[in-house]
TrEMBL record:
Bilayer-spanning residue ranges: none
Name the record gives this protein: NADH dehydrogenase [ubiquinone] 1 alpha subcomplex subunit 1
Record bears the keyword Thylakoid: no
Alphabetical list of InterPro entries matching this protein: NADH_Ub_cplx-1_asu_su-1 (IPR017384)
Family statement: Belongs to the complex I NDUFA1 subunit family.
Organism whose genome encodes this protein: Oleoguttula mirabilis
C-alpha cells in the first residue's frame, strides 16, 4: 500500500511539472528562469526554441518594484 501511494504521488507531481521530475535546490536564478519560462510558454517548466517572443510578452514584465531609501 505504501509503495502504491508513493508511486501515485510521484506520478501526480511529475504530471504537474509537465512530465519532468521535481527540482531540488532551486535558487533565485532558477526561480527567475522558471518565471520567464512560465511567461513565455504558459508552463512553469516549459521551454521553447522559438526566436521571437509571443505577442504580449513585452507587457508581462518580471521586474519587481523596489522601495527606495528615504
Amino acid at each position: 500500500m505504501f509503495g502504491f501511494s508513493g508511486a501515485a504521488l510521484s506520478k501526480i507531481r511529475a504530471m504537474q511539472n509537465g512530465g519532468k521530475r521535481a527540482r531540488h535546490s532551486v535558487d533565485q536564478w532558477d526561480r527567475q528562469m522558471m518565471d520567464r519560462d512560465r511567461r513565455l510558454t504558459g508552463f512553469l517548466r516549459g521551454q521553447t526554441d522559438n526566436v521571437l517572443a509571443p505577442a504580449g510578452f513585452e507587457l508581462s514584465n518580471a521586474w519587481k518594484v523596489e522601495r527606495g531609501f528615504t
